[in-house]
Amino acid sequence: MSASDYIRMNRLGIQARFRGDSLDNNTNAMNTDRGQLLGAWGWAVNAGWRTDIGLYTTQLLNNANRSLLNDSRWKLLVDPNPFAPGTMDSIIFTDISAREREMMILQQNNTSEHNINFSGANEQGNYALSLGSVRDNGMIIGSQLKRMNLNFNGGLNIGERLKVSTNISAYNVEQALPYGGFGGVDPEGGASGGLLQRFVGVAPTIRYTNYATGEILPGPNDVTLGNPAYWSNLTVNNTNQQRFLGGINLEYTILPYLKILASGSGYYQYTNNNFFTKAYQQGNGGAMNTNRAASFNTSKTMQYTTNAFLQFSKRFKEHNVTALAGMEFYDYKNYVTSGFAQGAPTDLIPWLAAATPPNVQGTTIVNPAGASSNFDQWERIASSIARVNYSFMNRYLLTAVVRVDGSSRLKKGNYYGTFPGVSLGWNMHEEGFYKNFFLSKYITRVKPRLSYGVNGNVSSLGFFATSQVYNNAGTYNGFGGTYVANYINSDVRWERTNSLNIGLDAGILNERVTFSVDYFVRNVFDKLAGLNISSQTGFSSFTTNLGQLQNRGVELMVNAKIIEPKTDGGFALSVGANYYHVKSYAKKLPFNGLEGNRTSGFFVWDKNNPGKQIYVGGLVEGQRIGLDEVWAPKWNGIYTDPSTIARDANVYNAFLPYNNKRIKQLGDAQWHQVNPNDTIDSRQFVYVGRTTPQHMGGFNIASSFKGIRLYAQFDYAFGFVVLNNQIVRGLSQVQGSQNSTTDVLKTWTPNNPTATMPRYYWANQGRNYATDASGNNPAANLWEKGDYVMLRELTLAYDLPGTVISRYLANRVKGLSVNVTGSNLFYLSGYSGNFPEVGGVDQGKFPLPRRLTIGVRVTL
Amino acid sequence: MKHNKIFTTAALLLILVAAACTKKLDEVVPQSSISKDQALKDPNAARTLYYGTYGLFRSYASTFYQLGEMRGDIWVDGLFTESVDGGLQNLYRHNISSLNVPFANWGGMYNLLYNFNNVIKIIPQTPLPDAEKTRILAEVHGLRAYVYYTMLRTWGDVPLNTEPVETLTNTAATYKPRTGADSIMLQVKADIAKSLELFGTATPVSTDKRVVWSKLATLVLKGDVFIWSGTHMGGGAADFTTAKAALQEVRNLQGANLNLQANYRDIFDPTKKVNNAEMIFAVNYELQQAQLTFFGNFSVNSIQANTLSFAQAATPTVASVYPYVSGANRVGMNQAMITRLTSGLADQRISNTFRVMYSNAAPFAIRGVMLTKYLGTVAGTSQIYNNDYPIYRYADVLLLLAEAKTKLGEDPSAEINAIRLRAYGSGYTPFVSGSQSANMNAILEEYLREFIGEGKRWWALRRAGDSYVYANTNPAFLSPSSTAKFLLPLSLTMLNADPLLKQTAGY
Question: Which residues, in sequence order, are CB contacts of A3 under 8 Å at separation 6+?
Fold first, then answer.
């Protein structure tokens, strides 16, 4: 949505709220809302808002403030008075546009990256070292990142039989984020935490500056709504992380065909977060908070992997056999420590060192402080692995593998799972009969493939998911308590995925066009999942191995060299494309006594069998999985004349907040009835679409000419729906004082009787845009297709020709190339929001940064 | 030969390593939580389960509050300054239907019950001293009775669980129908009897913080429960007599450690929790443990507080009196209720419960009310919400006793006058016993004023009888033609998740 779509809605919002609220025939309700109207937020009768530090600038024009109109920031609006029909008010206000506000939180993102590589090798060994650094200022004002890394690989041959190689890498990153000390400012977060949606949704008449003195004001007392110029500087929130990885690999030749391969590696990661909040004012005119809370937390991760294999490799005439068997052991541990304190006398020292120790005043603890440490994560995996590769004359290829994995996440007795796999390939074009076949001139390579494999998974379980332990119930009256929070199913097993893949690779006209197609069936047995259970058990769900699910899909890939260079450096053009599609089914579900052992869904009326209900949005045996389906009420239009209201007088809308649920007003939505029983409830919902793309893929074009290379890469997804909640939250006004987009001008009013959108109510009281006052179940009409094509990358590169290098750089430089890359350049999409790539409810995500990279590569 | 040796050695090695691996996997056990095994072996681990029941009970305090008050008449369509709290609005407007289901999934109460059941089962197997085991069981039976009683009043028939489920094999095994309200009432009374039996004959009054269940609490609950069963479940005079006896037993203990606080404010004062004479059982809130924050929507936004005054004048602004209070004003009292509570003789309960907020600009119109009962203390520049939330206090004993007497046709004036004396001081209007309904209305008037914000008013109206509910409810919301709304419906999700559950009658 373009920023200019936002308009001044504060005033209109209040009128609408007045219009919509007298429905309940209840004088109390009426008085209440009138009372609210006079106080509260928004345009201000109250002197408190009118001052230079008032929250909003809106005020009635009078002789005292008339001079403000000489200041270009102040504007005048003449508008009908909502209480006294026929009279007009002159209102003055200032206005910060949505674009201006976006500019207050977003900035141009610059990244600079440097890399140096040294490498060399001889018969005795090899050596490769690289050093790099990255600096990035981030997209949100106040964020930044610095990273340095080192990577070393070296090998040495000791005698004839032993080869040793080692790799070491180190990594350091320092990162700072604004707002962090206030917690919960999540760019992608929910309705309350999403910075972009919340901040741009503030009434534009907000006062962020004292216009008399120029002082920066905090605005509302909420970090996601307040003035970024004030709040973003108040916290210190930095993270630094160091990672070290070291590994050693040994290869010992026992006999010419028998080797021992062994390796060990260790990984260590240390992360430290520091937070500090300076003294701050809790909103315009609010009290000062001088707690100056400071805290830190650290986590230390240690991970070791060791393995040893015996490898047998031999050729018997045309038979080539490689067999390998061995074991692997993995150990992972994580420790955390944290501490907090407050009461520093100054903003200048952002560390706990400056905090004041806790003390008791009366019976109250002032400046509470505390510390904690924990060993919270631990995992071990022990595996045995055997693998055989066999090929005959490069015609028949066979790989068979079996591994036994044991995981500490499962209970004793269930530790181990056995996972075999086999794959077959047939290079048909190597066969004599094919070579004689007339098609072999055109189709030069044909390779049918077949593979079957079993994979195990326990990663969706927690580290100690099968241990019978009690959860922390907090401290009560000074004593620590525990309780049973979840039903712990210690008897879960490995989740197993059986994949059957049938594929064909082909090369046409000597690999000028290559083509690959795959069809796969993936059966997930014993899927680890939470199953909803009756709440009288004391729990909402329990984790279990859930029957059998199945994914079926197809993957296509084609690459073509359309123009091949005739000479070195001649013109070349190639294109490539791929496509991916998958569908998921529930094959077998745990017995629950219900039809198809259905779970996690709900009932709607069946549009094909009036009066019958169908179970959708969940899992039913034999049916496609519906968890990503969106079902919503749909309006067929709006009531524009009293006769249709009279016709529908009997239609009962269960979602209305009034006692009389048959009330309708001009401009209200005419709800679609799948089953025409005059009752609007959740069973009348219609299918809107799925939130996961049904078709995905990408395509690319590459061309080159005389050292100039041009490359463009697109990706696409279609067949899914997105809801732009920035629009819907404005239209439904569920938050109460949220800014709206210009879509609100399309809503029905007495002056706009031909409008296409239903009447606008404060707090969605008419339930026209969602089924409740919290914005749940937005109408089907508000969902949009997310279909998009994106130009993900466009690169132009130039390699300096060798002749130029030798002439001007006297061969001191072996190669020099420059490139310019643009990333995330544009979407072709009808979606109104910033980011169509994720389906479902879009709370106002940050756009992907459009990135321009300029690179130079020098080889010495 | 040489090759065979290598292979044999390798194979042997593999077997050894495999055995070692299993041992390595065994070593991975949780490092930072208490296991069931520990609770069965170590008394301190067992005690964490006991304290956990209170920690858990605390997290339901807001549910108990809403069930007991928001459907009553105190907060109906009031004045407030921000957008409405929709959930609470549905409760006070009784906007309840099979599609609009408050407290779905039984308000989550079955997890609380599971843990009570678990403690009742595990504690006897632990190495705790016998006296401590008995005391814990006495308390937990009392707590369980309180919870089932609340559920009975809320839903009528509810599934009955008195044992923790140990193993779940399939979903179908978890289905359970609702047990009739009569049987639930029997269970409640059995738990009360068990609790009293375990507490023994002595009835000590705690001189500490009264934040754990006690024999006194069981006795007050017994009075409460028997008045209900006498009124609604055919118990009649026999039940009222039982109730009266239980409450009288508490009343007889009135003394230095058990009495009304002369200053109403002292009941809630976070600095006067120890040996608070009026308290019988309260839910404990302390800094760094848990704070009483569920009244946030009965408070006010700190910026709006600059434009609101506690007097019909420009000052004192709400912000100047409570600079560190945060919250939002989404619930309020209507003008009629404000007038009813604030006019007439000065009542110290009202002035120490809420304050009326006016616009600080002429004509200083009323904007709403701010609940001040639970504002805790100020530490530095932070508000610490560390008031305890009372479940039963001595004023309950007096008013319940007055109720029992009224229902038995006896004179409740002594109890009513004790309450009025504390509220209005010596200039109070003495109550003279009249007709049964006049007596009941007088009691209900004291309930209204005494317990704002304590989750009592709706239950008091319900216990008095249906006609008292109708007399104090807007007929547009609840009337003799919508009696089904006394009990709450079950959500579609609940019915879908358990085919044995039947919808509450009338929905």
Answer: A97, A98, A99, A101, A102, A200
Answering whether pTM is above 0.90, one says no
Q: Which amino acid, one-letter code, is at A297?
A: N
- pLDDT given for residue B10 in this prediction: 66
**CB < 8 Å to A52, chain B:** none
Predicted pLDDT of residue A192:
43
Nearest CA in chain B to A14: B83
Note the pLDDT tens digit of each residue in B96-147. Answer: 988 889 999 999 999 999 999 999 999 999 999 999 999 999 999 999 999 9
Sites in chain A below the pLDDT cut of 50: 1-43, 184, 187-193
Interface residue A338 vs chain B (CB under 8 A)? no
A763–B84 C-beta distance less than 8 A: yes
Of all residues in chain A, the one with the smallest CA distance to B76 is: A28
Distances in Å between the Cα of A53 and the Cα atoms of B67, B226, B253, B301, B316 are 41, 59, 58, 16, 19
Q: How are beta strands A708-718 and B354-359 bridged, if at all?
A: unpaired
Chain A, window 229-268: residues with a beta carbon less than 8 angstroms from a chain B beta carbon = 254-255, 258
> Is B478 a residue whose pLDDT tops 80?
yes
Q: Provide the pLDDT for residue B421.
A: 97
Pick from B30, B36, B302: which is nearest to A221 by CB? Answer: B302
Sign of CA pseudo-dihedral A340, A341, A347, A349: negative
Q: Is A716 on the interface with B (CB under 8 A)?
A: no
Interaxial angle between packed helices A27-38 and A10-20, expressed in degrees from 0 to 180 and rounded to the nearest 10: 170
- DSSP H or E run through A525: strand A513-532
Q: Which of A356, A536, A737 to mutate to test the interface with B (most CBs of B within 10 A)?
A: A536
Distances (CA, A) of A599 to A317, A612, A788, B167: 58, 19, 33, 20
Backbone CA torsion sign across B339, B349, B147, B249: negative
- Of A821, A820, A805, the closest CA to residue A859 belongs to A805
Of B201 and A544, which is predicted with more confidence? B201
Counting one residue from A and one from B, how many pairs have CB atoms under 8 Å apart? 356
Please indicate if any CB of chain B lies within 8 Å of the CB of A329. Answer: yes
Which pLDDT score, from 0 to 100, does residue A188 have?
47
For chain A, what is the mean pLDDT?
85
By the CB < 8 Å criterion, does A335 face chain B?
Answer: no
Name the DSSP class of A745.
G
Contact A449, A504 (CB under 8 A): yes
Tell me if B52 and A473 make a contact (CB, 8 A cut-off): yes
Instruction: Compute, in degrees rounded to 10, the torsion defined by CA atoms A816, A820, A824, A825.
Output: -160
DSSP string, A748-764: -BTTBTT-SBPPP-GGG
Going by their DSSP bridges, the two strands A840-842 and A721-724 should be labelled as: parallel
Q: Determine the pLDDT at residue A173.
A: 93
Domain spans, chain B: 304-384
CB of A158 less than 8 A from some CB of B: no
Q: Angle formed by the axes of helices B394-407 and B215-232, to 10°?
A: 30
Give residues 757 to 776 of A whose Cβ lies within 8 Å of B. Answer: 762-763, 772-774
Determine whether the interchain pair B366/A467 forms a contact, defined as Cβ–Cβ distance below 8 Å.
no
Domain borders along chain A are: 234-392, 695-720+787-837+847-859
pLDDT given for residue B207 in this prediction? 93
Indicate if the pLDDT at residue B491 is higher than 50.
Answer: yes
Chain A: nearest CA to B376, how far in angstroms? 10
Long-range contacts of the stretch A445-449 (C-beta < 8 A, 24+): A445/A505, A445/A506, A445/A507, A445/A511, A445/A514, A446/A504, A446/A505, A446/A506, A446/A507, A447/A504, A447/A505, A447/A506, A448/A502, A448/A503, A448/A504, A449/A423, A449/A424, A449/A425, A449/A501, A449/A502, A449/A503, A449/A504, A449/A505
ipTM above 0.95 for this complex: no
